[in-house]
Amino acid sequence: MSQGRPTDVPACEQGEKALVSFSMASPRDIQLVGTFVAVTWEDGQEHFLTGEFLRERSPSAENMGEVDILGQRWGGDGPRQFPGVTVLGMQRIGNYAVTFEFSDGHRTGIYSWDYLRAIASEAK
Questions:
Q1: β-bridge partners, 93
Q2: Which stretches in the chain have pLDDT values below 50?
Q3: From the CB of residue 33, how many other CB atoms can be counted at a distance below 10 Å?
Q4: Euclidean distance between CA atoms 95 and 56, whole angstroms
Q5: Measured between alpha carbons, how far is 32 from 94 in angstroms, rounded to an integer?
Q6: Is 52 exposed, middle or buried (0-12, 13-18, 19+ CB in 10 A)?
Q7: Fewer CB within 10 A of the terminal residue: the chain, N end or C end?
Q8: Bridge partners of 66?
Q9: What is the largest CA-CA distance in the chain?
Q10: Strand pairing partners for 90?
Q11: Cα(75)–Cα(30) distance, rounded to whole angstroms?
Q12: Where are the alpha helices (DSSP H) in the chain?
């Protein structure tokens, strides 16, 4: 099964609703190591992510912007690079995500495990 994709949904009788579930594999371990966030996944892959990298890719509305019901984008027009920004702390959100507290005061981005894995694969 692919991560983040619906599982096979059995055919339903007419009028019944199908329950679709998603697989969001959490990391085996995630911790601050010096100036990096070290992430180890269940398949053994490891990523070491800088605060600058994570801050640039914050999925928050402040950083990415958001679209209203009329299709107009609001926000997301701030700086795209954050030199010197570090991660001061992090907090797991249930079994599906983590949020980071950055040295520039930003703390509103919620990084789902699937999103974190996707951006981590971009890291150098």
A1: 97
A2: 1-22
A3: 8
A4: 24
A5: 19
A6: middle
A7: C
A8: 74
A9: 57
A10: 100
A11: 30
A12: 51-56, 61-64, 113-120
Bridge partners (DSSP) listed for residue 87: 102
Domains and CATH numbers, the chain: 29-120 (3.30.2020.30)
* Tokens encoding 14: 């007419």
How much is the pLDDT for 5? 40
The tens digit of pLDDT for each residue in 7-37 reads 443 444 444 444 443 457 889 999 999 999 9
CA dihedral 22, 24, 25, 29 (to 10 degrees): -160
pTM (whole model) above 0.85: no
Quick check: 36 and 50 in contact, CB under 8 A?
A: yes
pLDDT for 96 equals 95
- Go through 38-47 and write b for each residue having 16 or more CB atoms within 10 A of its CB, e for each that does not: ebebeeeeeb
